[in-house]
Specification:
It is built from 13 helices and three strands, in the order H-H-H-H-H-H-H-E-E-E-H-H-H-H-H-H. The protein has helices at residues 6-17, 23-43, 54-66, 71-90, 118-126, 133-148, 152-157, 187-200, 218-232, 240-253, 258-265, 270-273, 283-289, and strands at residues 163-164, 169-172, 181-184.
């Protein structure tokens, strides 16, 4: 990645040495700055990234929005930039942090995620045959995405050693935001996983490509889900992410506590999981109706 001016590099070193931020977080912040620098230069050249006018940052965010970045992404980028400016201000290089207190209203981004109904989820699983070793491998990918709510990258990174046969759970080590978690494996999925492991071996990646025997990548997983969706007669919008959304939505539909779902999905807080309430019309209203206020004893 790019080397920045001493102030930016000093901030990154501060996050590492003083803030004790995880390597993944440091990469995330550096990636934000790598993306921001060319856009800010195109707005007004030859001005340090941390010494811009407020209007420059507004134009930067607007260009990102026009490029299709979601509101949650924009707020993350803004948080990274605000931290840099705060560091520059505290070290005496700025009179003030022009982004202090500024945030974006991301409510427009809280739209309903694509998710499957229970009937559609059953159709998708039934469309995954298990006659051959390759079919069993692909079926298990779908089952783990839906049954454990895994992200695509988390599925790709799973090793055989991450499966705890005694406790019937798996450990997600390479998780978003460097938040490893343990996920229980549903009974039906666990049975098929055990059968798969008898064929797979005892070490290494849980899933490998058929041709070159390398660890699968996101493209491989996407193709498996798209093929299964076509066989099930579902739309092209059924993606690995849709299966993860379905996992959360169906748990919520069964009354599972939001904090529990948040933990299972590896979210930073239940607020992040709250987006799934939009997929369940009447859920919040039903919760309010459970309150017993006034009236009789």
């Amino acid at each position: 990645m790019s080397e920045f001016d001493p102030v930016v590099e000093g901030y990154l070193a501060y996050l590492r040495d003083v803030g004790r931020k995880a390597p993944g977080t440091l990469r995330d912040v550096r990636c934000t700055f790598n993306r921001a620098w060319p856009l800010l230069e195109s707005i007004r050249p030859d001005v340090p990234m941390w010494k811009r006018a407020f209007e420059d940052y507004l134009l930067w965010l607007e260009r990102l929005r026009e490029a299709g970045r979601t509101a949650s992404c924009l707020n993350k980028y803004l948080s990274h930039m605000r931290g840099l400016l705060d560091y520059a201000w505290r070290s005496g290089r700025l009179d003030r942090n022009v982004l202090d207190g500024f945030s974006l209203n991301d409510s427009i981004d809280r739209r309903e995620p694509r998710s499957l109904s229970l009937a559609e989820a059953r159709r998708l699983v039934l469309a995954c045959a298990d006659a051959t070793a390759q079919q069993r491998r692909e079926r298990l990918m779908v089952l783990l995405l839906y049954g454990c709510g895994l992200r695509t990258g988390e599925l790709c990174a799973l090793d055989i050693a991450d499966i705890d046969r005694e406790r019937r759970e798996l450990t997600v080590h390479k998780a978003k935001n460097d938040r490893p978690r343990i996920v229980p494996i549903p009974g039906g999925v666990f049975t098929e996983l055990l059968a798969y492991l008898l064929e797979r071996g005892k070490r290494g990646a849980l899933f490998r490509t058929v041709a070159r025997r390398k660890r699968i990548c996101a493209r491989d997983v996407g193709e498996v889900v798209r093929s299964a969706s076509r066989r099930a007669g579902l739309g092209p919008e059924v993606t690995p992410k849709a299966l993860r959304h379905s996992f959360a939505t169906h748990l919520m539909d069964r009354g599972v506590d939001l904090a529990v779902i948040s933990s299972l999905m590896g979210h930073r807080s239940p607020r992040e999981t709250g987006v799934y309430l939009h997929a369940l019309p009447g859920t919040r209203e039903a919760a309010v109706r459970k309150l017993k206020l006034g009236g009789g004893r």
